[in-house]
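Retro notes
What went well: the complex prediction finally ran end to end.
Inputs used:
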Amino acid sequence: MTQPMPTRSWVTSANGHRDFPLQNLPLGVFSINGSAPRSGVAIGDAILDLHAALDEFDGEARRAVEATVGGQLNAFFELGRGPRVALRERLLELLAEGSKLQRREAQVLHLAADCQMHLPAKISDYTDFYVGIEHAQNVGKLFRPDNPLLPNYKYVPIGYHGRASTIRPSGTEVRRPKGQTLPAGQTEPTFGPCARLDYELELGIWIGQGNAMGDSIAIGDAAEHIAGFCLLNDWSARDIQAWEYQPLGPFLSKSFITSVSPWVVTAEALEPFRKAQPARPQGDPQPLPYLLDTRDQAAGGFDIELEVLLSTAAMREQNLAEHRLTLSNTQHMYWTVAQMVAHHSVNGCQLQAGDLFGSGTLSGPQPGQFGSLLEITEGGKKPIELASGEVRKFLEDGDEIILRARCSREGFASIGFGECRGTVVAAR
Amino acid sequence: MTQPMPTRSWVTSANGHRDFPLQNLPLGVFSINGSAPRSGVAIGDAILDLHAALDEFDGEARRAVEATVGGQLNAFFELGRGPRVALRERLLELLAEGSKLQRREAQVLHLAADCQMHLPAKISDYTDFYVGIEHAQNVGKLFRPDNPLLPNYKYVPIGYHGRASTIRPSGTEVRRPKGQTLPAGQTEPTFGPCARLDYELELGIWIGQGNAMGDSIAIGDAAEHIAGFCLLNDWSARDIQAWEYQPLGPFLSKSFITSVSPWVVTAEALEPFRKAQPARPQGDPQPLPYLLDTRDQAAGGFDIELEVLLSTAAMREQNLAEHRLTLSNTQHMYWTVAQMVAHHSVNGCQLQAGDLFGSGTLSGPQPGQFGSLLEITEGGKKPIELASGEVRKFLEDGDEIILRARCSREGFASIGFGECRGTVVAAR
């Protein structure tokens, strides 16, 4: 018999918390006062130190906590769904109102504001997809007004390999990259700091269990291979990208840094927030059989509201509120995460626990929903005006970009992802 | 005072060995009878077990050997040039004729034929370049006969991120990948085993010391960041590639396996085999300043002869000699390895010890020099005939591809790289 799920926590800041109420329980890696990084769970304004509370866990849940040793969640991700669900169920008991764990609060809980967050896992490979169909159309229109989507788009979950070594947690500064660019009207490139620095709003996906090289993950098994989710800012140097990307794709225009929010929001926490896909209209082709799973497609993609905010140095000096650049939703993903996993491994490519996927930029079709400045300003042609009196075509030094996400549904507590922040600093 | 370099080894199979004479001394990771992988040096038909011989080393050379503990050379690569050179000098003494180490032969030497080779390092990121200008032209001609090279080619060392998780040592079987392809004349893709499986002949480059994110490696410092070299087969599914690669580059068409030869041939061993670049003709643009280093460009690229052989199952049954598909040379690299390192990091991208670069396919301009079947058969239009009576447009199940390399120069002992082998097995 299933117990009714508790809804209130003895950690009082969790009750009604915008991101981390009792219903979320994301995992991450933190340190405090220069200590070794260790695993924790976000609850309200606090972090539960999993190892300090180790003796509260047994069975599968204890196995899960033990796999988080060493300041990296890879071994925990590799365990798959069973131990992760057992951990969640035990955490719900321990953190619910009335739990005896409250007596040990001083020992097991830290204020998040006192902690530093780290990457949750060692990332072996990072893949950036392109499943945001509105972004693909918006960008395609800039180059091919009559035919914005390429013929493969509605058959292939397009993706490409990204750089793993420069993925960093929220808060890491974004050094403006230098590189080659081709000035308008010229035939020879020049070298210097990027002049068209942009953000891209993406959902990040943490891979759980891996597969052996040569094996494929069937779409029906994909859930076992998805550990959780984060926000991802795929910082992009548009001028470097335009000059370098033919014929093999983006390279240095993307590899200077990629920022992620540090908390891993689990598939279990997001389960109530799936919704059948409106992005695949009548008349679109059926997915090929290896991408077809009626249960997955009936459950649909996630309904997660996504937001991008800009704060310039002048705005901070004038105490002006952040400027909202984007309000979008993960419903603009043309492919589900299960489809991305099945596609990535269909050729026998080995996925490993702790691999990271980016969804690609998640724009909506309307102004106000565009997930990059490239789309918002039409490649710099239509600058935006800020309350500070400044204008922006692309990002300037001192600009901070903040990504947020929020899941809401009638009858369920809202949950969020925390933030993914980055401030641009001058080129060296 | 420099001692004259010894030329003959007490390991008699080394003297005149096609790949591993005393002058080469490449490093690798091996195991024997299921033992834990450990570091070794190839010498003739044998492998010197570095740890069994540890007490023969002191100072910088000992530091180098100690950094090879654990069956991965990453920490050794990170040490940079000094300890690597000290190790080489001591190995030359220990393995030269007359060395007392011969008395310990049974303890420190294994027959290579009894050993299994492993990847030499944990590869964090893999980047595939496109610096083989003749390949770029040959492939470009198939699509754009009048304008085969894109405008960025002679300014930008073009590269893209590859998949690190599926890099394997020579001898690993090559499972034919499955995927989406667009049949000629159709508008809807089908799914099935790749029908246009190809090899690509490349030089692999192992990265030595890394750089911090945000820093760039100046071209004059690049040598400190290059640990050594191998052969690399960038197996390619041409039909999957043609359908998937727009707009973000190759993905599943390359990520099913990449094979490397297991021995790391050092920059020191290759030093005599550099030669000023013939590939950059008069009238080509000067490299931008960050890619310009007169010492590097005067030394030039490597003069390494490269060979690809094919053996089909029928040829092996009939005891027929391997069929030579390609005889090419690293002189067809338009950019030096130092230029590749400087370019990769100019945007602040962090390189790490054990990262791997591929050069891109190293074709020559003439028939017989093409480094892929795509070029040899003009995309399947001109099948090749084999002594077995078979024909090939692309690779069939049972076909084995063997890459070899050889450096020769008047007055110097020739050295080689060993082999990079892979046999195609049927799709699952």
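What we learned: The radius of gyration of chain B is 22 Å.
What to try next: split runs per interface for comparison.
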